[in-house]
Amino acid sequence: MSDRPTNHGGGHNTRHPTGIRVVLAVLATLTLILGPFGYLMGLDADAHAGSAAEWFTLAFGAAVGLPFLGAAVATVAGDRKAALWCLALLAWPIVFVSAIHLLSLGG
């Protein structure tokens, strides 16, 4: 007998779909907030404690790493639609970096 749950729903997560979606919502929120915040702080690092590299690392980790983490969690949970939404968040860094530089918000 296997420890894995049976899946009669045709590839959908039948055990805890709400819990997975809550975790992915938290990761998406962190992505949307910490990416631009870290990037702006990196651009303005000379006025604050810490180096620009530390802030840009936070921005990159949040804007790129968290969507990949969310996609991995959703894939393991069997939620393909949520995994695709997480991967769609990879366009967010292009949006916020372009907006920051076009609006001259940084530095």
Cα distance spanning the termini: 61 Å
Strand residues, percent: under 5%
How would you describe the shape? Answer: elongated
Helix and strand run? HHHH
User: Quick one: biggest sheet?
Assistant: none
* Computed Rg: 18 Å
The number of helices is: 4
Number of domains: 1
Helix content: 55-70%
Structural class: mainly alpha
Unreliable spans are none
Number of strands: 0
Query: Would you tell me the overall average pLDDT?
Result: 85
Task: Give a brief outline of the structure.
The chain is mainly alpha-helical. The protein has helices at residues 17-43, 52-77, 80-88, 92-102.
Structural account:
The protein is mainly alpha-helical. The protein has one domain. Helices cover 68% and strands 0% of the residues. It has four helices and no strands. Helix 1 packs parallel to helix 4 and helix 2 runs antiparallel to helix 3. It is elongated. The N and C termini lie far apart (61 Å). Keywords: Membrane, Transmembrane, Transmembrane helix.
